[in-house]
Amino acid sequence: MGSKSEDKAVFDTESAKQMVNKLRASFMAGKTKTYEWRVSQLIAMLNMLEENELQIVSALRDDLSKPELESSIYEIAMLKNSCKLALKEMKHWMKPEKAKTSLTTFPSSAEIVSEPLGVVFVISAWNYPFLLSLDPMVGAIAAGNAIVLKPSELAPASSSLLAKLVAGYLDGSCIKVVEGAVPETSALLEQKWDKIFYTGNGRVARIVMAAAAKHLTPIVLELGGKSPVIVDSGIDLKVATRRIIAGKWGCNNGQACVSPDYIITAKDYAVKLVDSFKCELQQFYGKNPLESKDLSRIVNSNHFDRLSKLLEEDKVSSKIAHGGARDETNLKIAPTILLDVPINSLIMKEEIFGPLLPIILVDNVEESFDMINSSGPKPLAAYLFTNNNKLKEKFVAEVSAGGLVVNDTTVHLAEHNLPFGGVGESGMGSYHGKFSFDAFSHKKAVLYKGFSGDSSLRYPPYTRGKLRL
Ligand code: NAD
């Protein structure tokens, strides 16, 4: 009897090609295009989520020690809402949209037809392995496409459950899951796709974009960045602190793309802010947060070491105002606040993606807008806590980020009426709600003409008289 790895068939470029060819044949036969197929797959996904909630929670616990409530809300409930919304609205989304016509084409009528793209490739990340895999798929199904999903190998229990569930519930002639890491993803990236939807880091996004360029394949890139939180004075500090904690440590212990990365506040407000964090953090996670069941662990030892290095830098290690405890065996890091961190430290140069929260001090919070715009790539999200309406207006007008939230953190992600996506190095394209349907559709322009009103203007001979008209 061979070993487990010998038993597993190698997934190479040839396997990828055959898989895509079969899916393309199903797409070309029109299987995914009907309203009935789309409805059947969305209902199947809904059933899949409802009937396997315990297994999903357990896989997320294995991969990340993700607290049950976080799994239930941010992965399962959000996905169910996406399926339900698409089921409710899809007929309307699929309808051709009437367009106005002008004198240039008179007499005519026009419409915009949402056409499925074809066979699409979804590559997802480990931190929200179900949401980031299935949510793009909801849009791709609603828009009538065939799909290959490649979940992240860094969340292996979730990846294997996703493969099992998708094969068991969804139409295998049109939707496939390929598990694996770089070799499998590379084999798939060599194929011709009609869209690639990638969630992850900017380094791999460049590989994805280069592969897509070979076939002129359009892409959506859902990336990350350093999402700042500006905290003004004169606010309800308790509420603000709790909302920052919920967006940072309450989202996978800071391992979320829109988690607050750092805080900017005025020098004379910082001590008050830190005191409030200490008080609320202790209420939420107790005296020994390393033992709290309500905090995810760090995904693996590479990321644990990366975060430890950020914390151990001389300029930073002396700045710990709260927390700092680590448990290497269980890959746990306590919520850690670093006060008055120098802007040139390592921790301020890269996306933290973990439970460390530096605070940068300024004389006046208004300075922070310039600082955010000039200090590095555009962030995925930016947050402002204030009661000052002028400051809100200036923030919205001046700060460039994928999305902004005033007086809360991360919740814009749950609002399906808003597009979710980055700008610049935090990504391109967007999804959620109707925007997901649009991300996987081609907007086909259709102009209808009759035979009457045929002007001779555009036909030769091109006389001077025609020019003057
Ligand atoms: P990851 O390591 O799971 O990688 C993402 C995907 O890329 C995986 O499926 C992986 O197999 C694949 N991959 C890795 N190396 C590859 C290579 N050389 N060639 C082809 N494919 C390759 O996830 P990650 O990148 O560590 O995720 C964290 C990053 O993702 C952070 O920057 C975070 O902000 C961002 N993120 C963004 C969003 C969003 O919605 N905007 C959501 C989650 C995470």
From TrEMBL:
Pfam families in alphabetical order: Aldedh (PF00171)
Entry annotation: catalytic residues: 222, 257
Keywords carried by this UniProt record: NAD, Oxidoreductase
Transmembrane portions of the chain: none
GO cellular component labels: cytoplasm
Transcription regulation as UniProt keyword: no
Keyword Disulfide bond carried by entry: no
GO BP of this protein: aldehyde metabolic process; response to abscisic acid; response to water deprivation
Reactions listed under catalytic activity: an aldehyde + NAD(+) + H2O = a carboxylate + NADH + 2 H(+)
MF terms (GO), sorted A to Z: aldehyde dehydrogenase (NAD+) activity
Domain Aldehyde dehydrogenase as annotated: residue spans: 12-446
Superkingdom of the organism of origin: Eukaryota
InterPro entries cross-referenced by the UniProt entry: Ald_DH/histidinol_DH, Ald_DH_C, Ald_DH_CS_GLU, Ald_DH_N, Aldehyde_DH_dom, Aldehyde_DH_NAD(P)
SUPFAM superfamilies, per the entry: ALDH-like (SSF53720)
Family under the similarity heading: Belongs to the aldehyde dehydrogenase family.
Protein name: Aldehyde dehydrogenase
Organism: Hibiscus syriacus (Rose of Sharon)
